[in-house]
Design brief:
2 domains; three-stranded antiparallel beta sheet; Rossmann fold; Pantoate--beta-alanine Ligase, Chain: A,domain 2; alpha/beta; binds pantoate
Length: about 280
């Protein structure tokens, strides 16, 4: 991978990287299209990174289909697909991880101890191997994007980080490889994540600016659906991820909910001054 990348850099090509864990869906394809637009050559990495999964999480059952992924990468015009195995990236004796103090202590980081340490470590390794000029990440993983932007600044990576809007199914469910694990009934239930966010935006437009009321309403709405277990529903500052109690500027509303055994996340920027939508 590094040789390929060096050759293209020498030829003056700007490299775009889209890091993924595979089982590609339209959300990934949209990141890849953005990557193609931003760089002269597009690299897609596919690696289910063990260090970002905690004990009891779904590393073993994470969906995989490399043949299909290769086909989709080819059809979308990727110039290289990097598919290392675990021993390539974490050879025996590997013992160095990247740690960040503040942003990982919120949202997903509260229940997924060590998750962002694993994400930052693998992303830094991918950056060092691929040496892209630009890398594209989805805004569905809002906290991941924030943590990576911080890491890139703090560790002086000369890489432009581009966030790409969440791609959704027609009923609003944010696209995710994990959606494939939902039963048909759970798939219907899963709409409630995005609906809860939209309800909160609607309440804000009616001047309900108390974050506690909006999160309680969202929780009640989600809990009225079968097989749901809320991990968190939080309204916070989009830059610091610190909780907000009174909404007087745009805030991030983020949530993580288990539907059956599958943990799903979604988020939305809520705007206090938007005119009500009909
Ligand atoms: O968002 C993902 O798919 C993963 O967290 C990433 C960025 C590829 C790192 O493993």
């Amino acid at each position: 991978m590094t040789q390929w990348s060096t050759q293209h850099r020498k030829a003056g090509h700007a490299l775009a990287l889209v890091p993924t864990m595979g089982f590609l869906h339209d959300g990934h394809l949209s990141l890849m299209k953005e990557g193609k637009h931003l760089g002269d050559r597009l690299v897609v990495s596919i690696f289910v990174n063990p260090t970002q999964f905690g004990p009891g999480e779904d590393l073993a059952t994470y969906p995989r289909n490399l043949e299909r992924d290769f086909r989709l990468c080819r059809e979308t015009g990727a110039d290289a697909v990097f598919t290392p195995n675990t021993a390539d990236l974490y050879p025996p004796g590997s013992d160095t991880f990247i740690f960040q103090q503040k942003l990982p202590n919120h949202l997903c980081g509260l229940s997924r101890t060590g998750h962002f340490q694993g994400v930052m470590t693998i992303v830094a390794k991918l950056f060092n191997i691929v040496r892209p000029d630009v890398a594209v990440f989805g805004e569905k993983d809002f906290q991941q994007l924030a943590v990576i932007r911080r890491m890139v600044k703090d560790l002086n990576f000369n890489i432009r980080i581009v966030g790409h809007p969440t791609v959704r199914e027609s009923d609003g469910l944010a696209m995710s490889s994990r959606n494939s694990k939902l039963s048909p009934d759970q798939r219907v239930t899963a709409q409630c994540l995005n609906m809860a966010l939209k309800i909160a935006q609607g309440s804000l437009e009616k001047n309900i600016t108390d974050a506690a009321i909006l999160t309680k309403n969202a929780a009640d709405f989600i809990q009225s659906h079968p097989e749901t277990a809320i991990d968190f529903i939080t309204i916070c500052d989009p830059d610091t991820l610190e909780n907000v109690s009174k909404i007087d500027k745009p805030v991030l509303m983020a949530l993580a909910v288990k539907v059956g055994a599958t943990r799903l996340i979604d988020n939305m920027i809520l705007h206090p001054n938007r005119t009500p939508q009909k």
